[in-house]
Amino acid sequence: VLCITADLARVCPRGQVFSDCVSSCPPTCASPQPPGSCLPGPCNPGCTCPSGQVGKSQCVCMCVCVFVVG
């Protein structure tokens, strides 16, 4: 029987951090705010970008994003 401890479950890819509540619609450069189609729901523990960074598989500083103001 293989047991996975809570510590192993909290290992994240390089550049990401573990959070007890990860959004199902993480902010990206293309979509810094959750789209209207992203309904709030129960959050799940997992890996996410640190504060001030955005991305899905790779986190980047929001400062490198180009935003178009309407």
Automatic annotation (TrEMBL):
Q: Which CDD domains match?
A: TIL
Q: Where is the TIL domain?
A: 12-65
Pfam families in alphabetical order? TIL (PF01826)
Matching InterPro entries, A to Z?
A: Ser_inhib-like_sf, TIL_dom
The entry's protein name is TIL domain-containing protein
